[in-house]
Amino acid sequence: MTQRIPWARISWEHWVAGCGLALLLVGTYVGLFVAPPERHMGDVQRIMYVHVPSAWNGLLCYTGAFVAAIVVLWTSRPKWDAAMVGMIEAGVVLNALLLVQGSIWARATWGVWWDWDVRLTTSLVMLLLFAGVMALRSFVEDAERRTTWTAIATIVSFVDVPLVYFCVRWWRSLHQVQSTPETVDRAMVLPLRMNAVAFLLLAIWFAARRARLELALRRRDEVAVPERRELVHA
Amino acid sequence: MSQLTAPTLTSPARAEAGFLRVLAGQTVTVLRKDLLLEWRGRSRLLSVMLFGLVTLALFSFAVGPDSANLRAGASGFLVLALLLSSTLALSESFRLEHEQRAIEGLLLLPVDPTAIYYGKALGNTIFLCLLAPVLMWVAMVLYAVEFGALTLVKMLGLWVLAAAGLSAPGTLYAAMTSRLRSQDVLLPLLLFPLVIPVLLGSVKAMDLVMTGDPMSQLRSWSLMLLAFDVIYWSLCGVLFQHAIEDP
Amino acid sequence: MTPTTTPALEARDVARRFGRHWALAHLDLTVEPGESVLLAGPNGSGKTTFLRLAAGLYRATHGTLSVFGRDVRAERQTSRRFLSLVSHDAYLYPRLTALETVRVWARLLGRPARDADLMPLLDEVDLTAAGGQPVGGFSAGMRKRLTLLRSRLEGSRLVLLDEPFAALDVPGQKLVERWIAGFRRDGVAVVLASHSLEQAARLCDRAVVLHHGQKAWQGAAADVVSRFEEVTCRN
Q: Is C171 in Cβ contact with B1 (below 8 Å)?
């Protein structure tokens, strides 16, 4: 007897990931083989098709975590804590990828693995900030305190991001013209946007899976209230 | 022991006062209490000062005896010495509170957690400011920098802004990490990336004060430091109650 | 507004979990203004947890707790004005003297804090001679007297006492008994958690026995000594 795949029981985030992967494949193909090379940087520029989506979606994840953190402080609901953790970790993964990609780009463009470019430096600080939040969380044993303190650290860290950006910009700016569609050749916009959406869908998948894990861990530790005992008669 | 009579209860004297007046009064009382405790344990202030001096000396050894290099990095070394000393000060301020759960006693009185925060953050800022005269004097000697009177005043002003910038988030994080194992690792891990704007701003501003400011950038950096202080003194004051109360 | 008609303390189906362990479950307890209740039970039965919940130091996992009609958690700044907690912890700063400690408390409570106002308070607990000594060097009895002084300073309408006789010599215990009697005379509600059943029962109107985090028995305080073993030996 053939076994049927229980399509209805596949979690929604797997469908999202499927779409994301498909879009990533198409977008990457277009970016690597269809879009023209950049006039000055040549084929090295093609790293933009993963670098910029990583940056956009990493920041989006951190923003989502910030909003979830505010809701957590207001409601203390485990679901919002799980969502916050999922988005922080997705953001950290994208942030780390961003730094690796940026390093490769710096090496190819400027001949060094690291330069104190404004956005690269800000990304490094963001990674340190949110990795610190994850470290704090790992040391707190009580679930409710862990929730509250993670939310506090997330809010404090997120507020710092624009301050770091402007500060580093004043401190040192090795110009990199911002890669918005208006300043990017039209032929490059399509794969950039496709990959941006693909990364978003994959980030949603990652965050959702992590959130489910967090909720499952929390439920594992929950025990039902004992039965009410009879009073001994006075 | 004398015969003690049971107490008679007078009518509660917790007057209905304006909220801000009460908050200010409690903040001042917490600050005075902390300053008195620091005075009683002033050997610790000396130890932290010595730690700062050791840090300044270590930078000299790391960079080498070239006076030009040392002078060029003087502002950075000073601010780093302040930053590294701050974690010692911050973690100690909450160790005293948890020793006999004194902070829980404050919350039960009740003292508004916001008052506890601002009292302790002000105390930490004052403590860090006390390091300034000694560390600056040693930096002048070790790194061959000279301060005129006006330069010194500006440097002290920047030091106050930097100390306030470290104390605001530092007090919040110290309240949390002081209850955990590995607080000696966690507090710097959380605080140092966060205060990079303070580090950059104060180093840049002090450098301009010491070497000259031909393009009038000092004002911008000082305002940036001030903006950081205003943002974090407000934000951390709001968040502190969540950090200090048990779930 | 001074609350007079609402219960001093009202707990409804209160439960509290720490990790996988339920320290309290299904606890209903009402304490009327001026009433004194003995909370008895073996170690680990949930007495300290309940008192800390009542003081708003923990959030109840389930159920509601209010002090004079104010939720102890949502309105804790207000509910704490009505209560005092005298617990194992002295809430002291070892480097401060007794006089300095009382001065800090008085200032935080908005009370007069000159020496002339504070010395009579230290007289009441016989700590005048030790007023200039750091509290870090105080004996258990001296720390307890200072803590009782704090509850007087707070002027509360509900006093929660967690093992007030523990680690005290006989004169110290007599002092605590006199203070509790004084609270009762002044119409202050008292919830007293204690292993010293005979001693505590004399001071209370009513008793509740907790066992495994739940209410196992309640009745007249005079009966608790005779019923305690029977109640706690079940399961």
A: yes
